[in-house]
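step: validate -> pass
step: tokenize input -> pass
step: predict -> running
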Amino acid sequence: MAKKCRITVVRKANYTDLSEKYENLIEHACCHEEGEVFITNGWEKPAEFCQSAWDSISPFVMTLAHGGENIYDGWMKNPRSAMISCNDGFRPVSFLIEALEEE
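step: predict -> pass
step: emit ->
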């Protein structure tokens, strides 16, 4: 059975210089705010979670939800976690993903 995972929005960046130079600006690019927390049911996407961000982080959620640890050989202090950003090169959002212990 897959574990639940906690996804925390840790940081939002905004590279306005890149946006001004390359992007056709969009009004509502990101719906998440720092400090927001989502709990997955296994590796199922939380209802309010950005689809584009989910496409970036879901392989890591799936790995952790199914008991995987030590992603990238010791990269994270907590072996049952990962820090992954969405793929928006203008406004990347960093997410901390943590496998939760069975209750």
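step: describe -> Helices lie at 16-22, 51-65.
step: cleanup -> pass
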